[in-house]
Amino acid sequence: MHKVLVSRCLLGQRVRYDGGAHGPYDLLQQWQTEGRIVPLCPEVAGGLPTPRPPAEITGGNGHEVLDGLSQVLSIDGEDVTPAFLAGAAEAAELVRCHGIRLALLKSRSPSCGNEETYDGQFAGIRVAGQGVTAATLARLGVQVFNEDQLEQAARWLAALEDGTPTA
Length: 167
Hints:
The protein is built from six helices and eight strands; from the N terminus they run βαβαβαβαβββαβα. With 167 residues, the chain is an alpha/beta fold.
């Protein structure tokens, strides 16, 4: 049975920057019952409190943060890049420990966004790119989905279980 890394906020745990959560999602409840889920909030794992000031990647994406070309700043201007990198490292360790090949992460998060994040101006403007943890997982070959892609994630996991995963 394959394990799935899941953002803790999608499991209804109140770990979002604003102290909120998302869910419940039927699929995640099923995976929880099956013992598949490995929960993680990279930002909390990296040492940030809940609640915390919102943060965005400035002038780049998660890959550029990993490469030292961009930063993650809070709305107050605090450089929280080290906490985001520490959370991504924790995710990478969980991937290695559990042989994880699939993750379901919170969309548009500066940590977890798999397709887009915000532009760093705190004006609600979305930009293409992955968050820091999503970029880390992608570099490790993990297929990353968000909560709007639950059906795709379920299909990918079923194919993985059958030995024929496709993106």
